[in-house]
Specification:
By secondary structure, the protein is of the alpha/beta class. The chain has helices at 46-53, 76-86, 102-112, 117-130, 146-158, 176-192, 204-207, 232-246; strands at 4-15, 18-30, 35-39, 61-66, 69-70, 87-90, 164-168, 196-200, 212-217, 220-226. The protein has a 6-stranded mixed β-sheet, sandwiched between helices. It has a 4-stranded antiparallel β-sheet with strand order 2-1-4-5, with helices on one face.
Amino acid sequence: MSLLRLNNIEKYYGNRSNLTKAVDDISFSVEKGEFTAIMGASGSGKTTLLNCISTIDRVTAGHIFLEDTDITTLKGKALNKFRREKLGFIFQDFNLMDTLTAYENIALALSIQKRPANEIDKAVKTVAEQLGITDVLSKYPYQMSGGQKQRVASARAIVTEPKLVLADEPTGALDSKSSKMLLERFNYLNKEQNATIIMVTHDSFTASYASRVLFIKDGKLFNEIIRGESSRKEFFDKIINVVTLLGGDMSDAL
């Protein structure tokens, strides 16, 4: 059975006189251990779609299932418990707590789960080393670069080893070396720990690390390509071909 299933998802904004259909009848499923990228031009609906999966936005119509749970029906404490135990979030604007150090930001997710202190310390230091942020663990967000903040935010999301990692432009603020480091970490989580990742990105190089890419256009699912046995370079070329096919609609997607 699929880990995640989206059935006829629709999301509207506005009122009857000025209605915007951000997500228009999208259905797909994601298998456990799959690494899926979602691409599309600005305004295509890809981030709205991710926000619906992450329960930040409520769908206007349709249903989203994670395992046997219909997450579109969750409210209150049940919704908070679901987010805390099942999901890891990596947002474009980091969402770090300004009053906490990097170490404390990463540890917070584990503290909420009431993990033992020695287990938290080990997990935080391990993930920090893998993302190259050991030297900023004692710093506060205002003392870090954008790239460092994003790696701290990524560490916080993956330190709990969640069922589903949701990433919105995770490499957007990173230099190429840091991007590659983060994507290699995603690959490790995906291949070695069977983590399931859904990532929204404008960047074809970033998307080429995924095992499947979904292309969204005008709120609809436009195209889908699967990596299969292709090398990452071959998959990158296939992604570029679809981006080229989309032409002007994807001109800001690279």
